[in-house]
Amino acid sequence: MKRCSVCWIVLYAIVLFKFPASMAVESPSERRGHSGQGGARLRFPEEWGTIAKVEGFQASMFFGPGKQLDFCEAISRRDTSKIEKMLKEGFDLNQAGKFGVTPLMWAYIVGDLPIFKVLVQHGADVDKKLASDCRDGLRTVHFMPFLPGDTVLRLALRHRKSDYFLAAFPQCNDPFDLDADGQTLLHSYFSPPGMNSMEALDALLAAGVELDRRHRLRETACHEGVKHSRVAAVLKILKAGASPDIPDRDGKTVREIAIQKLDYYKKRKLAAPSMDVYFIASDLVKEYTELVEWLDQHPVGTIGTEKVEELQGANHANESKPQPPTGGNELK
Length: 332
Known about the structure:
mainly alpha; Serine Threonine Protein Phosphatase 5, Tetratricopeptide repeat; 49% helix; elongated; signal; ANK repeat
């Protein structure tokens, strides 16, 4: 009996050492790393460095000799005095180099947010798209891919870089932009690994993005979100007026998928092979339970669009493009 008690004490000590108490206060999204599957935590490449550093990109790969290359190499060196000088001389920020890469796109790839913001404030076009042959020169190993027709906004959503998205989105002329697969910016928000910023989602909703558009594979943003365990964000857009009753390509609605996922994570929780998986499954059970309960309270056809109309009205009331700030646009 004593030996059994000692064994339990040793086992308990091992569990405490391997799974410290600090883990219990992490948010669900932090614990599961937005993997969307409730499994092992994803390690995101930004933990290793910038896109340019990790993927080995250099300005000379995208810009030929001349002012463009000089400007983009200055971005790479963080040479703010050179950048300011060329901007004052009227450097064209919107002339694209190879594969459709612009200086703004290069600032994003280099990963310098202050320079990125200054370029946006000086009129860099945030709606410029990568060329159809971009995969030939922008091949990534560690980061999510660069795709033909991508804008810096769509890349920021896909790469989970909310600061860049929020800096550029106020200057977006086309929040209803569709990519080659018919995906809206809201689809890109939910694409794995998925943006983790509710502020970015609020900005998209305030711009009046289409909530129920289906892409080429006949899925709405809600389908994407509920399948990839972005439950809190899905609930937010449902409350904004998105329909949970549109079928996906398999004929399943958001309601049906949510109920299936809830059942799956309940079983996953009971059969968890580790404490990490147990905690993740527990969080997801709570989130999917809240989602299913909300859907039960809002039967088919009863979810109105008042909130969407309110958001769209606020957006149309000020259709003019936001002007760049008058101050604070100098590099330091």
